[in-house]
Every structure is written in structure tokens, then in C-alpha cells.
Amino acid sequence: MRLKSAASPDLARRKASGAHYTPVPLAHFVAERLLKLTKRRVDAPLRILDPACGDGVLLEAILGCLRSAGKYRAEVYAVETDEQALEAAQARLSRFEQANLHFMAGDFLTLWRIREQQYELWETIPSSADLPEDFDVVIANPPYVRTQVLGAERSQALAERFGLSGRVDLYHAFLVAATDALRPGGAIGVIASNRFLSTMGGSSVREFLARHYDIDEIVDLGDTKLFEAAVLPAVFWGRRKQNDSKRGPRRPARFIRVYSETQASKEEAESLPAYSSVLEILDDAEPGRYRLPEGIFSLARGELAIDQNPKQVWSLATPRESDWLSQVRKNAKGCINDIAAVRVGVKTTADEVFIRSDWDDLPIELRPEPSLLHPLLRHEDACQWALPQGFQPSIRVLYPHEIINGRRRAVDLTRFPRAKAYLDAHRSRLEGRQYVIEAGRQWYEIWVPQDPLAWEEPKIVFPDISPEPRFYLDSSGSIVDGDCYWITVRPGISHDAIYLILGIANSHLMSRYHDLAFNNRLYSARRRYITQYVAKYPYPDISSPVSQEIIATVKQLVRRVRSRGNDEEARATRKRVDDLVACAFDVQSEKEV
Ligand SMILES: C[S@@+](CC[C@H](N)C(=O)[O-])C[C@H]1O[C@@H](n2cnc3c(N)ncnc32)[C@H](O)[C@@H]1O
Predict the structure, then answer these.
(1) Helix 170-181 vs helix 152-162: crossing angle, to nearest 10
(2) What is the CATH number of domain 11-252?
(3) How does pLDDT run across 32-72, given as a tens digit for each residue?
């Protein structure tokens, strides 16, 4: 991850190699904390490894800290595939003449002879002759290259070599190899995407870290924009366990979380303590809100709650927040998934063919039959509670599926000659979607067609990414696009439940719950709303008087917003919904817990 102002390799190269360099102040922050964790061996130089050193900023920081502490004996190994970067590192570190410096051009994953019995898996026998074992310290900002960029074949090979599961990222493999390079008791400081903390895909990394490390601290740098990379960074410090085991940590790990705040008013912002940089508040500020040149940030400190089950995300909650979460869960009847299905919208994988606003402008012989064209609700349409009366999506999707005898299937195109002519005109584009053909599907099908019968039911629709909850009711039978999600109640559940879910999902309380339980904020205070999270929202007993009141109030609010928009009365009713939801879970409704 690279600081915006620093010179960086060109974008395409950077994307492929995951080269976003660490800004100098952050490098110091990581190095200082890492050295506090490090225990030296008697009479031996400190053996330090950066397995993907880039231009050497992390090594410069750690050597600088050692020098300031009057300690010089260090043996440093810097590995890097990019020879230009390695030369830059060499130049940068040349002032540390007392350190014993080794620069190695090459792929660390190949250089590191992880698990000797797996030699046969490598294309070439790795030469690790120059790379010693038993490092005291690993400092790293490994390349972050996701499965999509790595390609399926390379991901698969990495997964096999490094015993990884789920979505493999290059940094997972680096963690495994770097851990192997570290002596038991050795210390690691790693900068990575914060996604491993809070996503299902991160479970193999969570399990690996908990098994091999006494975790000392995690700092979730949230949307502080310290990097230009699209991912949000977190820093992890830990000491390799003496015996890799499932044993829990000796003491709970510390965590710090810093995220931007969007809701502070100007007067409020001016009353907050001012700091000049994020790293300054990370160093010594109490939990609270702070004014920085780039905006208002809120800082939380606490202990990391690590669930024994790696499938569970690691929650970064303060004791107060943890109590609040438990209270909400204790008063819940279950989670939304018990009473409703939460699904993503349709994914055509050829939107330019299936989704248009100008169907009516096509020549009549190419204009698909109206019964196959359906209004499509998209991200841009999203709002809170309800769409305005008379709203019509401007876009329609050509939906070539139907239900016959309770089963979904592709329509028989001979019954729809105009749709057939239109699709035939795009046949080569559609047949180019090889995965559709390989899945035994018709060439003109859309990739994720969902359940056509369920469109007709009353449903809640919401966009996948939004700064605030934008759940709204739709009873028009419209289809939902793949950049949104939708909720329908399960068979046998009263349709009133849809209003209860709508009230809960849009409430302040649930935004707070979402942040604390899933910790998945994106840049600019946006949240990711996906099945994985929304299906886990708690709900109160639907038959309780307060739930019944929520249902009645939300019905009233939906009617109001539909006919008059979000006027003052709607806002007052919304406040009432917030209070009722808080009452249903028996907690405070306000954001500050
Ligand atoms: C995120 S950058 C970090 C660089 C540096 N450690 C820093 O903190 O600024 C990751 C670096 O890993 C290098 N890299 C990518 N794949 C590598 C591999 N297989 N072995 C060694 N280095 C690699 C990239 O060229 C890039 O310089």
C-alpha cells in the first residue's frame, strides 16, 4: 500500500504485484510497536526479515528505531521480486552500515522452503541456501492480490501449497511462509487488508493467526485513507507461539479501531480536540472523537474478542460495546434468516444485452415480447422505506426464464420470435459466456436468474453499498438488479413480518449493530450490506406488543413516504420507529453506546 504522494510503480504493474507501499509514518508506527514485542537472543544479532520489502521503508523504520535505542546488531534479509524496488531499498538502507544487510531478488514464496516434504509440489527446487531460518522479527506489508487477479489456477496452487481454504489471496500465502520463517517466540508486525477480521472469506487467516500467534494487538485503520489501495488496512502484531496450538491467547489482544464520522455538525466538530494526524491519535489518545485535517474520526480501544470458531468474525468491541451487543442478542427472538430469505438480485453477466432503457426504440422485429421485459430496480433507485407513488424504473430487463410446474426453466424461444431474433443478434456475445454453456444451461439464459415467483411477493430491496441503511418496500413485482439485495418472508410467516424487518433494518440501532458485529465499514463511512450480514440481523418476537407497534408505525411511515416523501411528519415517525426498536431490544437507541 503506497502513500499517495510517494512515487509508485505504474498502476497495472502495481495491481498485479500488490505493490502499495507503506507511508513512512505508518512504517515507524509498525516498527516501534514490533520492537517492543521483540525478545533478543543473548549474544546474537537481531535477525530481521521483510519478505516483500518494496523500496525498504519498513526495514528503514525498524533499523532507525534500533539505532535510536542505541542498538546496532542486526542481520537483515530483504526479499523482493521487483529488482528496481530492491535497488531502491539497497540505496535507502545503505546508511545503516553497522547492520549486516542481505538483499535477495526473487519470489519469497519460492525462496522460502516451506515444509520440506512438499518440495515435489514446486516447479523448481527452491534454493533457500541464502535465506536463514529462525528469524527473530518479521516486518511486512505483503502483496495484496485477490483471487480474481491471481487467476483460479494460481490461487488453487497456492491453496494447496500453503494449506489455505476459502478465497485465497497472495498475502495468506505470505503469512504462512513468513510464520514458518519465524522462530517460536519471534515477533511479527504485518500490514494487511482488514477484511480478514470480518469476512467469511477471512476465516482461514483468522484460524491460522489464532493457532500460531499470541496476538498482541490489532489496529484497524478503517477508512483513514493512509493508503491509496482500495482495501482498508489493519496492522497485526503477535509473537509466534512456542508450540503451534489451538490454545487461546495468554491475555486478550488489544485492539484499536479508527473510522471516519460523517454525522458531526460543524459546531460539534469545532468543539472536538484537534490532532494533526491519525497516527498521533493512535499513539496516545483516549477513545473518543477527534478533529483531524481530513475530517472527524472516532477512535475505539478495547480487547479483541476471538471466537473459538474461526467461522465467526473477530469482533473489535470495547467491553461496553460487547455488553450492548449481548443485550441486543439476548432480547432477540432469532435472526432475520430464520423468518426471511435474503438474496442478491439477478446477475446477467451480459448487462449490455439484457438490460436497456430503449427497448421501445428497437425495430419492431427485434423488440422482445413485452411479457419477457420486466422493470428492474437498481442501486440508483434506492431510498429509505418506500419508492414514491407512481415510480416506474426506467430500465427493463429481458428475463428469459419462467416457472413451469413449480420449476424454473429457460423459456422456449420458439414461443417468442422477436426475443429470439434479438438474442440471436447477440448470440456470439452470449455464447462467449462459456461458464453458462459448461453449466449445462441455454446460451441465452441469465447467469443468476433467482426465483421468478418470489418477485411478485412484497419484498424489501436494498443497495449493496450505502452510507446509511436504504431498505425499502416494493410491491410492484419488479425484478432486482445484482447491485442490490432483496428480502421476502419465508413460507408460513405472516407478511407483517416484512414491516418489522423493514423497521429494524432501517433503525439507528441496527446500523450500530451492523458496525459493531460485522466491522465492515468501507471508505467514506459507507457500509457493505450483503446477505452475510443482513441475514444475521436480530429481530424481536413478532407477537410482542412492541413488535406489533413497530409494524403499525412502519406501515404508516411507508404510506407517508410513498405519498409525501421524507417530510417532517415522516421524520418524526421515523424517530418513533427508532425508539420502538430500541425498546424492543431493551437498549439505548442512540449511536453512542
Ligand atoms: C504492498 S508492497 C509493500 C512493499 C514494502 N514492504 C512496503 O511496506 O512499502 C508489496 C511488495 O511485494 C512485492 N512482491 C510481490 N510478490 C512478491 C513475491 N512473490 N515475493 C517477494 N516480493 C513480492 C511487490 O513487488 C511489492 O513491492
Answers:
(1) 20
(2) 3.40.50.150
(3) 999 999 988 777 899 999 999 999 999 999 999 999 988 77
